[in-house]
Amino acid sequence: xxxxxxxxxxxxxxxxxxxxxxxxxxxxxxxxxxxxxxxxxxxxxxxxxxxxxxxxxxxxxxxxxxxxxxxxxxxxxxxxxxxxxxxxxxxxxxxxxxxxxxxxxxxxxxxxxxxxxxxxxxxxxxxxxxxxxxx
Length: 135
Prior knowledge:
Elements lengths: L21 H5 L5 H25 L1 H15 L15 E3 L6 H15 L6 E3 H4 L6 H4 L1
Parallel strand pairs: 1-2
């Protein structure tokens, strides 16, 4: 023999004697506490997911942040190229020095359509100066 414990209006009634109307069978909506608890749990789960993804891709996010901040920054005005001594600097291995001196530099300085002013270490470098000062 089974006796009902809830709802309160049916408490103590034997199951055999129980008569439920269709409205009572449909059931009640879930209590507000359930929805609040479910919402808080989902918010916490998503917050942990977002933090985890941000930590995992922190370098990518930092790179995108710098790209975006550089994109927002105004572009500085371009400098005039007329005040440079040389158009280009040839950096080469000492094994290639002969080819650079006899082939590359003459080609760039004389035979090209718009001749370049070429800076070569062996010819144009002042000893005792820093590379930054010369370039």
